[in-house]
Design brief:
Blueprint: H1 10-22, H2 28-37, H3 41-46, H4 62-66, H5 71-77, H6 80-86, H7 90-95, H8 106-114, H9 119-125, H10 129-135, H11 139-145, H12 149-154, H13 170-177, H14 181-186, H15 191-196, H16 201-212, H17 230-254, H18 263-273
Helix pairs in contact: 1-2, 11-13
Length: 287
Amino acid sequence: MQIVDYGIDKALGLSAMVEYAREQKGQSFERYLQKVRGMSFKQFINSNDGLTNASNYGFSPVDCVRERVGWTALRKRFSVKDLVQFGMTFDIAVKVGLQPQHLGGDKGHAVLEQMGATSEQVKEFLFNFDALKTSKLSPETLKKIGFSFEDLLQSKCDATNMQQLHNFDIKSIVLAFQPTAEEWVEAKFTDEHIQQYKWDASLYRRFIAPETSKLNATNLNVSGSVPTTSSSRSAQLSLLERRERGAGLKNMNMARPVQPPEPEAMEKQFIKVLDTKKLLNFKLNIN
């Protein structure tokens, strides 16, 4: 049996030894840690002891990464509450195998917040359609995280598959994201897709059709999508202005110079128009 001198305060002494060992390079610190603790973290898990006693052996969440203890193995033994109290962070949880499917809905997002996850980290975590689908997060929670309707489009969500997301219907989408008419069209919310994918037709006529019908058909490209960026709209306006200016210059180039008539011709024309019979006969009295 190996006897280790922890000093006056066992918890403080053990913590100092563990911290020292983690700062060392090479494989020798592994044996040193096991010598100090008397067991590995995997052995601690199999001992059926609670995580509340893990700190007494100098264990911390980073040992899950060091000994390659996966998220699934941890969850088989401990509750999420235990892991959070143990000090589990979002970064470490992802490194040991946390997946969107483990969230289990909106309550899972609350756990991520307790682990210190930021909105940007969660958005990167839910990086595509499958991640959004398996997370089972509602539109309201996704909006709270920071997702916009444009973000959903970037994740390949549209009218053909969006109903597979948790609690997604037209009304909940409107309340959470308030998409623009252009975004509805880009998401393929058309009469055909509403019928084909069994969306609520009454909600479609109430919230979507009145907005998309206002779009000028000339703004639609061949694929049926509508440019949504300000740069594309500016480019269209600039092109229109250049065309109008070009047409104006063309008309100016076709114009011929106007030459005034000769003085004699102007005098004859003036006499011809003037009716001398209607001239007034009066004298100017200046006295």
